[in-house]
Structure formats: structure tokens, C-alpha cells
Design a protein that fits this description.
Radius of gyration: 33 Å
Strand order of the largest sheet: 8-11-12-15-16-17-18-19
Number of strands: 32
Largest sheet: 8 strands, antiparallel, barrel
Number of helices: 2
Structural class: mainly beta
């Protein structure tokens, strides 16, 4: 028995020794991958297509920059190059030892116009038949040909230039030509470019202050490319080139494009910039906007002659139960107007946008009923730094604006009415007789509680109406 125990102990010790990990058995990632380890090959499928294959040892994935504005992923992909030229292909190969990049240059000897027969290419350049390309200019006769907005939104909700507003800035004679042949881009600025104030140093100026028109020589021999991300097309200008107004961008999202019009968006300095371009030589026929006397009336119960635009308020709920169907207003349904809290709602304008200009010579008096609750906070100050001491006010404002103006609030007509009684329906009158000679108003704005602050508030409105002419 003693011998057996001795033999068993020797066996356990040997087994333990055999299981002890050695240095070579220890897990290790090995040497980190470097660009020298990354390899790939390109095989010409035909004159304008190259099959790219990742040959990096141990690589399990590859991401490709095809050098033509397009990208791809996979161990092997086929890249299309419709136009002749040299293209630098970059691969990012991934292995258990990390990732690294390598590059090769491939030459495409011929252009195949048939491969470029894509609507976006044709609309931008005029297609293969337009050997000199298509030239675009700023659509200066249109409102918002230059505009800016919140980069989180996709609309110029901060500012829009009025028609011909920048006529003295050297912007409207700029010509941007996109040619399909060799993807050539030509920016002819007639020697001067209109710069955003944050980028004037590019032309030798001093950043800050106001935008400025400066002498500027654009990069020579620039090219353009189109790429698609999801449903969105993007224009990329090489060598830091740009389109028209200089705000630091070389990449532009195409918001819309036709054979005659191009609307683009770019983002820099946390601002979304918008530009409207038009084909050089295109003659725009501006619609004739009628000048009319028409009913403007909304009872907020389904009876209305107008439509509302309410993106500047948190809530605009029609057919809301009347909170106090007593006194001058026993209607069952009214409007609940909810300002909203925070910077997005600091202006709190609800708008009626009319398809005509208002004739105020005969009808210029508006009336509405308002119920201002006491549960709102009318004392707490909550405003941006530039609007100190602002708070929710017991005021209703009615404004008339010209929607064709780049900054319609500058030339607006505004009448304010104080509400001195809370928790009770009262009727307010807004008489715009002093503005009856104006023929440019096509918007009516309702604002309750003041502006330029971040305080929330709920109000109730009924029976807004442009009063008919009094019968004699």
C-alpha cells in the first residue's frame, strides 16, 4: 500500500508539472501590426473597374478608401472609376494584432462617359455632352440664397439673406463650373471672394469683426467629386476649394438639385450654412403675388380660413376644452398655446403664412379672446445673458411681416396688448390702421408672454379674426 501511495504522489506531481504553462504557451497578441505588414492587390477587371483584394496575413476585415470619394468594406471589392486619372487607394486592414493602413496608386487610362450617366452627375455638370461643364452662380434674386441655421436642424432657422441683400459684397459675380471631363472644378471669383469673419486670415485678413470681401486667389487645378451617404449626395472640392461664400467648408450636402437650381448645405464653426445657386443664364420668372382683401379667421374648433406654422412653440392644440366657458366666451373648444421651456422657444411665434399680400386699406383691425391663467410663473427671470431681467409677461403681441424679406422681423409691424385680468376671458383689439399703406405683409404672427426668455407658459385663445368692414 505504501508503494502505491508513493507511485500515486509521483504521478500527481508529474501531471501538475505537465499542466504548468510555459512561456511559449502564454497567450500573446504578438507584435503590433504596422503598415509594412499590410498588403493588397488590384486586378483590372476592365478599363474602368479594379478588383481590390486584401492579402494581409491574418486579416479578418478590411475598410477601403477608393480615392474617388467612395469607400467600401470587405476582403475583396470591385471599385469603379468612370474618369481617367490616378487614384490613391487606402486599405485599413484589421488583425488580432491591431490595424494598420497601406496605400497604392492605380491609373485609369480612359474615361467612360456611359458610367457617368447618373442624374446627379448630369444635373451638376450638364452631362457628357457639355464638354466645358455647367456654370453656376448665386441665386441672388431669391430670399435665403445665403442663410444659416442650427446644425442639428436641416432648415435655415437662424437667418436668411433677402433678395440682392449682399449685392455689394463681390459674391454675385462668382462663377462655379463643374465639368464631367476629368472632374474639373473652376472657381472664377473675378479676383475677390466674400469671406465669413472667422476665416478672413485665409486671404491675409484678420479674423473677427464683420464678414468682408477680400482679394483672393483660389487654389488652381481643383477637382470635384460626388459621394453618397445613405440617401444624401455630397459635393467635395479638392485642395481646400470652396463654393461661393467662404465659410471654411469644402464638402457640401446637396439639399436639392435640378437642371437649373442647386441648394447646398455645409457645416463649420457649429453653424449650418445654406447657399442657393442657379444655372448661369437661367431666367427666373418670379410669381406674381396678388394683393387682396380676404377673410382671416380661426375659431380653433375646426372653423378656420388659415393654416398655422408652429415650430417656435412647444404646443399649439386646437379643439382644446375651454378651461372656463363663462362670460364673453362659452365656446366648447379653444386653442391651447404652450410656449415651451428653453432656448428653442424663446421667440414663441405662431405664424399664419398667406399666399397673397394683405390689403389693409379696408380691413386692418384684428380681434381675439385670451384667457391668461394665474398658474403661470410671471416673476422668475430666466433669460440668455444678453436679455437680462426677462421673464414671462402678461402681454399678447400681434405682428405683420413680409415673408420675402431675409430678416422679416426688422420691418415688421407689431402691436402689443397688456392683459390685466387673470383667470378670465378678455377680448383684445389690434388696429393696424397706421400701416395701411404697406403692401408687403403676407404673415400674421401671434406671440404670448413676451420674447427673449426661457420661461414656460400655457395660455388659451379663441376667435382670432380680421374684422370685416363696418356697415354704414
Amino acid at each position: 500500500m505504501r508503494n502505491f501511495r508513493y507511485i500515486f504522489l509521483i504521478w500527481v506531481v508529474a501531471l501538475w508539472a505537465a499542466c504548468e504553462p510555459t512561456e511559449t504557451d502564454s497567450p500573446s497578441l504578438g507584435t503590433l501590426l504596422t503598415s509594412a505588414d499590410v498588403t493588397f492587390v488590384g486586378e483590372m477587371v476592365d478599363a474602368n473597374h479594379i478588383k481590390l483584394t486584401n492579402t494581409t496575413p491574418g486579416s479578418f476585415s478590411a475598410i477601403w478608401d477608393l480615392g474617388n470619394g467612395a469607400s467600401g468594406q470587405g476582403q475583396s471589392i470591385v471599385a469603379e472609376y468612370p474618369s481617367k486619372g490616378d487614384y490613391t487607394v487606402t486599405i485599413t486592414a484589421m488583425t488580432r494584432n491591431g490595424q494598420a493602413q497601406a496605400q497604392q496608386v492605380f491609373n485609369i487610362a480612359t474615361t467612360n462617359p456611359l458610367l457617368l450617366d447618373i442624374p446627379e452627375y448630369n444635373m451638376l455638370t450638364g452631362g457628357s455632352a457639355a464638354t466645358a461643364g455647367k456654370t453656376w452662380i448665386v441665386d441672388h434674386s431669391m430670399v435665403a440664397h445665403l442663410a444659416l441655421g442650427d446644425p442639428a436642424a436641416f432648415t435655415p432657422n437662424w437667418w436668411s439673406a433677402g433678395a440682392d441683400e449682399k449685392a455689394d459684397q463681390g459674391l454675385y459675380d462668382d462663377e462655379m463650373t463643374f465639368a464631367l471631363a476629368d472632374f474639373k472644378y473652376t472657381y472664377d471669383n473675378k479676383g475677390k471672394t466674400f469671406f465669413n469673419n472667422a476665416f478672413k486670415s485665409v486671404a491675409g485678413g484678420t479674423n473677427g469683426g464683420s464678414d468682408a470681401t477680400l482679394d483672393y486667389a483660389a487654389p488652381a487645378a481643383t477637382n470635384w467629386s460626388l459621394s453618397k451617404d445613405g440617401d444624401n449626395w455630397f459635393i467635395q472640392i479638392s485642395k481646400g476649394g470652396h463654393i461661393a461664400y467662404y465659410e471654411g467648408s469644402s464638402r457640401y450636402q446637396i439639399m436639392s438639385i435640378t437642371n437649373d437650381e442647386l441648394w447646398i448645405r455645409s457645416v463649420s464653426n457649429n453653424i449650418a450654412w445654406y447657399q442657393k445657386l442657379v444655372r448661369k443664364g437661367f431666367e427666373r420668372v418670379k410669381p406674381v403675388i396678388p394683393y387682396l382683401v380676404k377673410d382671416i379667421k380661426d375659431s380653433f374648433d375646426g372653423t378656420s380660413t388659415v393654416s398655422w406654422y408652429t415650430n417656435e412653440v412647444s404646443g399649439f392644440t386646437k379643439n382644446y376644452d375651454n378651461p372656463a366657458p363663462l362670460g364673453i366666451n362659452n365656446s366648447a373648444k379653444v386653442l391651447q398655446y404652450h410656449r415651451g421651456e428653453g432656448g428653442a422657444f424663446q421667440w414663441a411665434n405662431a405664424q399664419i403664412r398667406l399666399p397673397y399680400k394683405m390689403d389693409l386699406t379696408q380691413r386692418h383691425v384684428f380681434k381675439l379672446k385670451i384667457y391668461m391663467p394665474s398658474f403661470n410663473d410671471y416673476t422668475t427671470v430666466n433669460a440668455p445673458d444678453w436679455a437680462a431681467f426677462q421673464h414671462l409677461t402678461k402681454v399678447v403681441a400681434l405682428k405683420l411681416q413680409n415673408g420675402e424679406a431675409g430678416e422679416p422681423w426688422v420691418s415688421q409691424a407689431e402691436i402689443k396688448a397688456d392683459v390685466t385680468v387673470l383667470d378670465k376671458w378678455v377680448e383684445l383689439t389690434f388696429d393696424f390702421a397706421a400701416f395701411a399703406d404697406r403692401k408687403d405683409f403676407d404673415r400674421v404672427l401671434l406671440q404670448i408672454g413676451g420674447e427673449g426668455h426661457f420661461v414656460d407658459g400655457i395660455f388659451y385663445v379663441d376667435d382670432l379674426e380680421l374684422m370685416p368692414v363696418a356697415k354704414k
